[in-house]
Amino acid sequence: MTKPEKIQTGAPVSWQDIRGDDNGDLMLATQIMNVMEQGIIVWSPDGTCELHNTRVFDVLELERDAIGIGTKRDDFLDAACACGEFSADILAEHKRRLLAHVSFQFDRTLPSGRVVATYARPTREGGYVVTSTDVTEARQAAADLAVAKQAAEDAEAQAREILLEERARQAEAHTLSNLDEWLQSCKSLDELFQIVAKFMGYLLPDSFGELYLYSNSRDVLDGACEWGQDGMMNDHITPDSCWSLRRGRAYEHSPNTLCFPCDHLRPELSGQLGEYICIPVIAHGDTVGLLALLRFVE
Coiled-coil stretches, from where to where (predicted)? Predict the structure, then answer.
């Protein structure tokens, strides 16, 4: 392929050395290039094709007249850009790098959808050796791997979320179990109301709440306990002062919807209230009281 004396002396060998030898060396070089997997093009310093192998036609899906000895590199690149293998901006970047005489690599997507990795390496004389390799399967495998990795990460995140939800559910169940145990141990209503207020403040840390119970005469409801606020609960309210008791179901109030505030709320607080909900307390099928959860607007 090269001159024996150059190999023996260790002097650097270039394409110019091969081209300057006899036709036998050139034919040997061409035969070696033709059996390689990559498509290979050798460009001269002035951007003219000096040599290419036959594999380049298959790799780049080229017609036989698309490239040959003497083809101008700019014309070849312009034709590839016109086919949509890369954009005009990328083409301009390629030409800038060629003028700078630096190595670079890029992927080109052929009209068939195949992906070809192209590597351009400068020669010491100022030309370029460009190799093109079909990497369609490798790029697809990488894309599939990325999808599988993302799916695995999503599954892991979902599993962590489910685990956190399960831990939160178990913590809530444990808290409710403790509440039930404390309520069963109460010896007076005062203790019961104290425990309810403590646990409600713990379960709903950002809430304000009030609990009312029907009096024996059932004409009024007495204030039993409150949490998240101090001294704002009414001593007594009438059953018809709450929409939830009048309608027999939970009542949710929102300032941004068509609804009306309950009369049992203090008038001076009406401008400070945000969303709130009133829930009838039912035991053994009878309504025994009212639970009000409030939120104030800062």
Answer: 138-165
Q: How far apart are CA 89 and CA 105, in angstroms?
A: 15
35-50 b/e (C-beta count within 10 Å ≥ 16 → b): eeebbbbbbbeebebb
**What topology is assigned to 188-294 in CATH?**
Beta-Lactamase (3.30.450)
Q: pLDDT digit string (tens) for 115-147?
A: 999 999 999 999 999 999 999 999 899 999 999
Regarding pTM above 0.70, the answer is no
- pLDDT the model gives residue 16: 46
Closest listed residue to residue 47, CA positions, set 18, 17, 88, 76: 76
Indicate the CATH number for domain 36-134. Answer: 3.30.450.20
CA gap 88, 94 in Å, rounded = 10
| Of residues 20 and 292, more confidently modeled | 292
Residue 7: predicted pLDDT: 32
CA distances from 107 to 62, 68, 82, 136 (A): 16, 22, 16, 10
Token pair 């169940």 in the structure block, residue: 173
What is the DSSP code string of 137-198? Answer: HHHHHHHHHHHHHHHHHHHHHHHHHHHHHHHHHHHHHHHHHHHHHHHHT--SHHHHHHHHHH
Task: With CA atoms as reference, report the closest residue to 263 among 247, 277, 243.
Answer: 243
